[in-house]
Amino acid sequence: MSEAIKNRYEFVVLFDVENGNPNGDPDAGNMPRVDPETGYGIVTDVCLKRKIRNYVETVKEDAPGFGIYIKEGVPLNRSDKRAFEYLGLEDGKVKEAKKADKDLDRKVRDFMCKNFFDIRTFGAVMTTFTKNALNCGQVRGPVQLSFARSIDPIVPQELTITRTAIAENKKTEMGRKYIVPYGLYRAEGYISANLARKVTGFSEEDLELLWQAILNMFENDHAAARGKMAVRKLIIFRHDSELGNAPAHKLFDAVHVCRVDESSPARAFSDYALTVDESVIPAGVTVECRE
Fold first, then answer.
1. Tens-digit pLDDT profile for the chain (291 aa)?
2. CB atoms closer than 10 angstroms to residue 21
3. Alpha-carbon torsion 216, 223, 13, 46, what sign?
4. Alpha helix locations (H) across the chain?
5. What are phi and psi of 109, to 5 degrees?
6. How many CB atoms within 10 Å of residue 18?
7. Residue 128 contacts residue 135 (beta carbons within 8 Å)
8. Count of helices and strands (H, E) across the chain
9. Number of Cβ atoms within 10 Å of the Cβ of 99
10. 259: helix, strand or coil
11. Measured on CA atoms in the order 196, 53, 49, 70, is the torsion positive or negative?
12. Would you give the DSSP letter of residue 284?
């Protein structure tokens, strides 16, 4: 693996959905998530991380150093055991091994970070190690994502659908499908070079893969339920130092997204205007826009 990153980053992601459900809420009949007080749409950080993991898994196909720890249908302890096997540890004898090797916690953590991209990136909670009295069960990752929120309030629509392929002797069945006619969402993220250096070893190679995963996170994830989803812009703030040259919120405030015409509902990305006020960006911070 290459050397850990040396610069702090913040970033803003703009993505949209057309005639789809970007993130259903299982507690509300799978309706699109909405802030009940404002009507703004919400997409959770967990949903976005799942898309990023899926992209990396698709591209890298479990290449050495780029495994995915959080996989659907795969028990976490199965991946945890790889560290025990590598270090020659046996279940039930970890406490004794730890007494003999005071550096065992770090060795286990380093193995997991080295072999799993998402642990190196987002961190992880690994209960197998915690249960075995190891102090490496919780790894704090350098990359953190916020919930995404829509630029404007959304109006979810409930559509009735029919099922003509009957089961047994039942007649035509009715169902429901929820969509957002159009919504532009904004998510913000943080990358700590300090945690990358001290904890996970998140590298420049990992960073470039992360950018590509964010830009393409919906490209291999199309489904009828999600409609047409696409990442429209990725605005990256790069600091000249490990700890940063400006507060993150000031950089985020420099990114403005507004409607071109308030008199009609937005139905496309072209209905919005994006500007980055570079006059408020302090020295030591550079801005890059990708799409």
1. 589 999 999 999 999 999 999 999 999 889 999 999 999 999 999 999 999 999 999 999 999 999 999 998 888 888 888 888 888 887 767 778 888 888 888 899 999 999 999 999 999 988 778 777 777 778 999 999 999 999 999 999 988 888 777 667 667 777 788 999 999 999 999 999 999 999 999 999 999 999 999 999 999 988 888 889 999 999 999 999 999 999 999 999 999 999 999 999 999 999 999 999 999 999 999 999 999
2. 22
3. negative
4. 45-60, 76-87, 94-100, 104-115, 117-122, 127-131, 193-195, 204-215, 248-252
5. -60, -45
6. 17
7. no
8. 9, 14
9. 9
10. strand
11. negative
12. T
> Amino acid letter at 15?
F
- What backbone phi and psi angles, to 5 degrees, belong to 253? -65, -15
43-56 exposure pattern, b = at least 16 Cβ within 10 A, e = fewer: bbeebbbbbbbbbb
SS3 label, residue 234: strand
H or E element: which one contains 31?
strand 31-32
pTM over 0.90: yes
Amino acid identity for residue 214 in this structure: I
Q: Would you say 216 and 55 are in contact if contact means Cβ atoms under 8 Å apart?
A: yes
Paired tokens of 123: 């961190």
CA–CA separation, 214 and 264 (whole Å): 30
CA–CA gap between residue 10 and residue 247 (Å, rounded): 10
> DSSP labels for 152-210?
EE---EEEEEEE-S-STT---EEEEEEEEEEEEEEEEEEE-HHHIIIII--BHHHHHHH
